[in-house]
Structure prediction request, 593 residues.
Amino acid sequence: MENKFELENDILLKYNSDGSGEVLVPQGVTVISEYAFAGCEELRRIVIPLGVKEIGQKAFWGCSELREIILPEGLEIIGRFAFWECGSLTVVRIPDGVKSIGNSAFRGCDMLSSVVLPDSVENIGESCFSDCVSLSDINIPGNLRIIKKRVFSDCQGLEAIVIPDTADTLDDYAFECCGNLKKVILSDGLKTIGKHCFSGCSSLKDIVVPKSVSYIGSSAFYKTALIDDSDTQFVILGDGILVSCKNTCEKAVIPSQTRSIGERAFAYCEELKSVIVPEGVTEIGDYAFEHCTKLESITLPKSLARLGSRAFVDCTALSEVCLPDDLNRIGSDIFYGTRLLDEFTDDLMIRNGKYLISFTGSTDTFTAPEECEIIADSAFTGSNDLKSVILGSNVRVIGDKAFKWCGELNEINIPRSVEYIGREAFESSENIRVSFSCHSCKIGENAFPKGAVIVFCFDDTEGFSVKLKTDFVSSGPEAALFRFVCEPSRENFEEIKIFEYKASAALYFSDIFYEYLRENIKQAVCFAVENDDRNMLDRLLLLGYLSEKDAESCVLFAVDQKKPELQVRLMRYKQEKYGSKAVGDVIDSRFSL
Prediction:
């Protein structure tokens, strides 16, 4: 068949099958484009020559008869779903130099039994080998830091796996339903085992969780031999993480070596009536005692610092819990479905006088009790009437999603006592004005939304304000600004990449950053004019950095922006500093005083 390869320069766009079943990709190709061979059911063998750097997404999707593929040295990227559902592929050798293998790249390759991966691989995408039910022989490269979600889920042929020392995270569902997986060797530097990571690995018993692991997600070892065949009442892994309790016990006296109670560790222990948590336990995970319907009493230690979301949800017999005095974090709906809710007949649930658990009122202004220290996760979520919040000087924590979906909220003060503002704390409050006095607190992802006005206050007086260009994220420009406010060093100043933020910050600290303002004074003045920020404009002009020529340009800019009062202010500056005509004598063809 003529023109069986459709090319555009060095990109192979499409293969038109000639029915031969064997293909040699032409020399000179550097990229095999997306869908280039997709659905070519008669393709059995393909040789990809030197020079090809990238295989695009779904390039060989559904090539059900493909049994052999020769990949070249120099290949760097294998795209998403590249070999998805290539059901006859049995062996794959990834050449050295490949850095990234995309999501689901080999997903559903039923006959794939062996894969060789080089140490050059730095990223293996989510679900990459998911549903490769015959896979029994694979090595995990030594440069991976994260074993991502569902990478090996439902790989029934896997019997053993070694996690390299570089890996610190096993993500959610990474090895879910690997029913024949018997042995896993974990690295000493591992920190996180995600939820359902080994769930359904019914043969898994030979595993030692290192003490470096600080988090084990819910049901991480659900339906494994490690749990189901345990001859002890409690299963404790790593550095004292209690992950499971036999659901036949009525009384649980938790062992003293326990440091944390994992997510859903006691969930559905329906015979459980009482629990004693020992000193030394610092955390109780989300849903830890979910649906323990006979649980009547629980003793919590003074050492407890975090109580997870819905920790006691649907514990219908639970009528009293004494919270310790040194909690730092309280999850959402911790008492949902318990008798404890019956104690509160008003709109506000406060425990220990300082833990604000929830607010369900319809007021437009809320003033927190002066003793309030912790605002629980989601405490005000959905309070649609709320417009203004006043926090006392003792508040230390504003929990995750604390004010999420409070769409009318337009004003809140953040006192200097605050140490943590949770993720998504003010999501959807696009018109909010935040008076921000705490300059060293930790701020969660998406805590403040795009459009929020942040007023940085110093010594209880307003310093400068900015309107956020994007949602707050820890790697974004807003975080750089907050770091600078916390520590106004030259190094942190250079990390601010948005001019509006940088100019506003430099103006407040003008004694340190005067040279930046001198170099960018015209742009800063025009920004103040555009945003009708008269206070900023006056402060900039007082510096005296604006030249006569630039002052004239700024006057014309004010005319274009239809800001007559600011135009007059600029004309006055020009007249007073450079002896130009008096303002009243100036006639502009585009604007008349």
